[in-house]
Amino acid sequence: MDNFADIRPYRDDEVAPVLGKLLNDKELLDTMAGLRAPRLQRFFPKLVRPLVRSVLKRQLKGVATVRQFQQIVKLYMDDMIETTTSRFTVSGLENLSLERPWLLISNHRDIALDPAFVNYALYHNGGDTVRIAIGDNLLSKPFAADLMRLNKSFIVKRSAKGPRQMLAAYKNLSNYIRHSLTEEKATIWLAQREGRAKDGIDETEPAIIKMLCMSQQKSEETFTDFIKTLGIVPVAISYEWDPCDAAKARELTLREQDGDYQKAEFEDLQSIALGIRGQKGRVHVHFGEPLDQDFSTPNEVAEAIDCQIVQEYRLQPSNIWAYEQQTGRNDWQQLPKEVLTELGPMNDDSKSAFEARLAAIPEGHRAKALAIYANPVIAKLAQRETA
């Protein structure tokens, strides 16, 4: 019996039937047409749809395994990096043996790009791609769920109703993650919190660690031994430009003003598309050191993850200019030498680029936009003070 059939990624023998279904999915074809030829799709959808199907069919010809499907995804990823980033760098992989599985717990800024950049870094350094945890709130359209599961994503059932159903869903998720790591030797990517860090503050939710602990065999292993078995590796991802900064600033502003914020239908899918298409500037991914110290509580594990993510987060000029504009201070210059050395060009060009970026955001939302970029600097300064 397959206890994880409704949440796990698709297997090789499921790829061909799913692709056949997708090639006849009108919503997928219309979405792809809207991305590639929006004006044609708007006025002549019935004309464009067969053309898109023909292109996809040609690209997917002969694809019968997950790895082959991810080779197609790689082509799009290569193009995205080439056209929307000015520089992509990786550090920390020397800390890891790519021959064994890891539980990568990452800060979370972009729905699709965070695990995509992690995959890109691993693939181009000889590692395998990861299994990606993704909330079912992002799968409002069936074709989206199919595409995600073809790309080695597994589903987090956040929409489960009632305490019993929620408990059962998270226990099954915990068991699946452990089964993937220990039995199938697959590396997992998991965000450090539910939802993106829209305010630029990267903090691990202890509830994530508590969920993982639901698969601990308490009669056979201590808490510390269980955490070490998981092979937790903190991952810090930074973007010079957040393609969704204006949308995040708007949401944060409205939430503060109204006390709540209701997402529009398919808003998350629109965020995914905006993140992929938008300019990101310099992007850096750092793989931390595996957690191997003794722990007593999930909170201690969360704090250890946060410590590495804050320490290894690669600041960008946009962070510094935002911090100076928000606080009027330049005490960021007291940060460790290696942090300052890693900074991009702190010159008039980068300052002008940041000011132009901020000016494009509605004035009433700019305070939140500044905070999005400034908060990583504040976190590093706070860490320095407590060290």
Task: Give a brief rundown of this model.
It contains 17 helices and seven strands. It is an alpha/beta fold.
Tell me what the structure shows:
This protein has 387 residues and is an alpha/beta fold. It has one domain: 3-Layer(aba) Sandwich (Glycerol-3-phosphate (1)-acyltransferase), CATH 3.40.1130. The chain is built from 17 helices and seven strands. It has helices at 12-22, 26-36, 38-43, 45-59, 66-84, 113-123, 142-150, 162-182, 206-212, 223-230, 245-258, 267-277, 298-312, 317-327, 337-342, 348-359, 366-386, and strands spanning 85-91, 103-106, 131-135, 153-156, 188-191, 232-239, 281-287. It has a seven-stranded mixed sheet with strand order 1-7-6-2-5-3-4, sandwiched between helices. Strand 3, helix 7 and strand 4 (153-156) form a beta-alpha-beta unit. The longest helix has 21 residues, at 162-182. The radius of gyration is 21 Å and the shape is globular. The termini are far apart.
Task: Pick out its properties.
Glycerol-3-phosphate (1)-acyltransferase; seven-stranded mixed β-sheet; alpha/beta; 387 residues; 17 helices; globular
